[in-house]
Amino acid sequence: MRTLGDTHDTALLRRLNTRAILLALRQSGPQTLTQLARAAGLSRQTAEAALSDLTERGLAREVAPTEGRAGRPARRFTFRAEAGHVLGLDVGPRRILAMLADLNGDVIEERRLDADEHTPAAERLVLAERAATACVEAAGSARGGLWAAAAGTSGVVDRSGRVSVSTIVPGWTGLDLAGQVGRWFGCPGFAANDANLAAVAEHWRGSARHVDDLVYVLAGYRSGHGLLLDGRLRTGRTGSAGELGGLPLSGWEDSSVVLAEAGRDAAEIFEAAREGDEQALAVVDRLAHGIARGASALVLVVDPELVVVGGGFSRGGESLLARIRAHLAEMCLNPPEVTLSTFGEESIALGAVRMALDHVERERLGL
Amino acid sequence: MRTLGDTHDTALLRRLNTRAILLALRQSGPQTLTQLARAAGLSRQTAEAALSDLTERGLAREVAPTEGRAGRPARRFTFRAEAGHVLGLDVGPRRILAMLADLNGDVIEERRLDADEHTPAAERLVLAERAATACVEAAGSARGGLWAAAAGTSGVVDRSGRVSVSTIVPGWTGLDLAGQVGRWFGCPGFAANDANLAAVAEHWRGSARHVDDLVYVLAGYRSGHGLLLDGRLRTGRTGSAGELGGLPLSGWEDSSVVLAEAGRDAAEIFEAAREGDEQALAVVDRLAHGIARGASALVLVVDPELVVVGGGFSRGGESLLARIRAHLAEMCLNPPEVTLSTFGEESIALGAVRMALDHVERERLGL
DNA sequence: CTCAATTATGAGAAGACGCGACGTAAAGCT
DNA sequence: AGCTTTACGTCGCGTCTTCTCATAATTGAG
């Protein structure tokens, strides 16, 4: 039955200590046995045992000792990030981006393919697979060598990684994206909503590095909200957390309407605004207002530490941000910080990488 | 430094196993050594060691063996719930409720005092202390014998347990409620928003027992929203999660306005509605609409498994609930279940009990 | 080139814990 | 009284961790 926790024999200690060493190992480059032991809070002997275990499993490697220092040279070990690879995919309405990363999450290969809004589902999937395969092959990794893969896409993606609602991408509704991606490479596959993955990426290495509660606003041709609480993605029961579709917010304008009225596309508007064009500034303000309106619902509900603005409009830069801040301050008693996305359009694929890594770390590294 | 986890010596095993035994012990009444060992997944010897440890700490007690069975009588142990007590307080605008509970969370004493909206802060605190002290003394427990105490109140309560905004209770803003409560009994003190604590109570033993993501709607003279995600209370950065004050929701009527227009109080309305009074039914529908409007924001943002409706209006019963469900279904694509609160007006104090117990379990029982 | 100083390694002993096994104790049943 | 049943309690073993100390490998000074 085992409902009250796992077995607690001495093997658990070994696992825990190996885990501590692995974490210490990944903190930085090659380290000596003593350094690792101290970092993990263990004795040198225990550290040694853990390292020999990790080395056997291919996760650690001994490297040449440093020269030029007095005393017996210390054995040095490093994390074998190349022991496995994960794939992150962004299958967007207009763009497909594949990233191959090692176990450190460092991106090794990257492929980008263009699509358009009308590309049918089957063809879009072929493009995605092509981009992904190109990455894997370029890295010289065997096709079956992937440890996990994840994909982000527009629309509501449920817990199992199936697209349950998609209004933008034709033929997407009902697609088992996670299963598809997993089948391509014979590895565990995952899928999530694009804004959610972008939030994950920003929290991992981007603007939201230092916070654990954040709202990500994807604003642009693709739009949506991502929610990260306690450092964990929150997609909700059906995966539609943050999808405000039905919320009757007064004065909530869709950006496409605003842009259509203005008769110019976003890039032109931002460019003109930068040059002081009054009409463009007004449009930027209306866009900011709409973004803030949507964000305010999330902010008031979860009271996050940070709002990260990403997506195409984030090219609007600080001027757009300033307007969003101003509008948000009007709507919230105690508004959170608002900042720009670090990774821009790469954040979705990067978040997918992180999602795949999460699985690998949990299941294969035992972290 | 110790950032990578605690020491992992064999003492950890002991702690973990003792914890497993403690959990098993609390699952039900007196159990034999063998039963406990099996439930915790440990050997009998280990279970025995853990139990002797727990007995020494006063958390377990050996009881008389069962008679009438063949074989050597088995030693039986039980959790000593009376080893400590916690206090839960609801300091509301119109009512003060104190509950004293043992370590099982079973309420032993309960005191209720009436106040009104105009009672000044100092006097309200005196009433609260009086109710609490009465509970403690009635239980024959020493005044210093409390292990933890928590209080719920209207308004925004920050992480530290300080009331940062209170519109209902006069003089409440700025009050360090957690500190106050702790000082009364010389024990750790906590405080939180009432709707949040109600959510905690419903999740603990009420309607939300079986789910981990829920939205609680406090509807009545006191109103507000409580948010529980992954079984944990979410109060946000400043404690104002779920406070929708500034959200420009179209068609969001305040219940007090609706009732004022109707010219009857809530109890009358619900009574009349039960008898089929058409005008009353219309008012109930308007109330339900308002409740659903507010709830919809939380539901769309976090996509919970369940919405629990509590507070004074929950006396409106199934008929109100049905209207709320109907309105919510219009606003959400995939509406969650909606159910009535189990504990009604007691849920806030009960949630406070749970909050105090959380601290005790974490810090004193090591769970 | 040699020797001291430095730094890390590796083996051995001791302590703590958990588990399986076996003999023993205490009850009911015949 | 003896048998059966059930659980207790002790013993020994293996694992894990840490401490200690002798040993090994390097640098740098004379």
TrEMBL record, chains A, B:
Gene3D superfamilies: 3.30.420.40, Winged helix-like DNA-binding domain superfamily/Winged helix DNA-binding domain
Domain HTH marR-type: 21-70
UniProt KW NAD keyword: no
Keyword Zinc-finger found: no
Pfam families linked to this entry: MarR_2, ROK
Alphabetized GO MF terms: kinase activity
The entry's keywords: Kinase, Transferase
Source superkingdom: Bacteria
Record-stated family: Belongs to the ROK (NagC/XylR) family.
Name of the protein described by the UniProt record: Sugar kinase of the NBD/HSP70 family, may contain an N-terminal HTH domain
